Amino acid sequence: MTIVLVIEVIRIGQRLVRDDRVTTHVALVARAFGATKIFMTEVNPEIKDTIEKINNTWGGNFVVEFIDNWKSIIKKKKDEYKIVHLTMYGESINDVENQLGKEKNLLIVVGAEKVPREIYELADYNIGIGNQPHSEISALAILLDRIQRGEQFRNSFSGAKRKIIPTRKGKNVLVNETRN
Ligand code: SAM
Hints:
Elements: E1 6-11, H1 20-32, E2 37-41, H2 46-58, E3 63-67, H3 70-77, E4 82-92, H4 93-101, E5 105-110, H5 118-122, E6 125-128, H6 136-148, E7 162-164, E8 173-175
Parallel strand pairs: 1-2, 1-5, 2-3, 4-5, 4-6
Antiparallel strand pairs: 7-8
S-adenosylmethionine binds next to strand 4 and helix 6.
């Protein structure tokens, strides 16, 4: 069983417009796979509104925080959190997943374009989800699943207006009319 207490994510280097959808999806994956917060630069304020609407409908208190300076966040968190940088150049997730599962608080760093060299030094772990280039969305999803071993899907999202009852065919959704 995992003993990770808090998982947060920081998105570094979003490119204007081009990365909006990917950044939104990074935030959605972080929320759905058990992280509590994402830090990102305020390139597009609508991303925060989108995630707040998702919280409102589907529950939970996932937080989007806009930041000016990624380095100061990482340095501030470093005392209490292990910094986990996702990079195709890193050591294999297969070799470190057990160790990661024993850590308490994790700040996961994902890039967009080429990340500054300094991150490799600031990180406690540089981790590759395989050593081929793919996507920060898939890398984050797989990392979160490996760390929590699927247990994240047992989390309940409090205050939801809608809750899905898993079903073999069709859609079964409980609607809580008392929420607005
Ligand atoms: N060429 C860029 C570089 O050198 O950093 C890769 C950019 S990639 C589109 C964006 C982000 O996806 C990376 O910063 C990393 O966080 C993540 N990523 C992509 N492939 C990965 C892999 N195989 N393992 C871990 N993370 C990966």
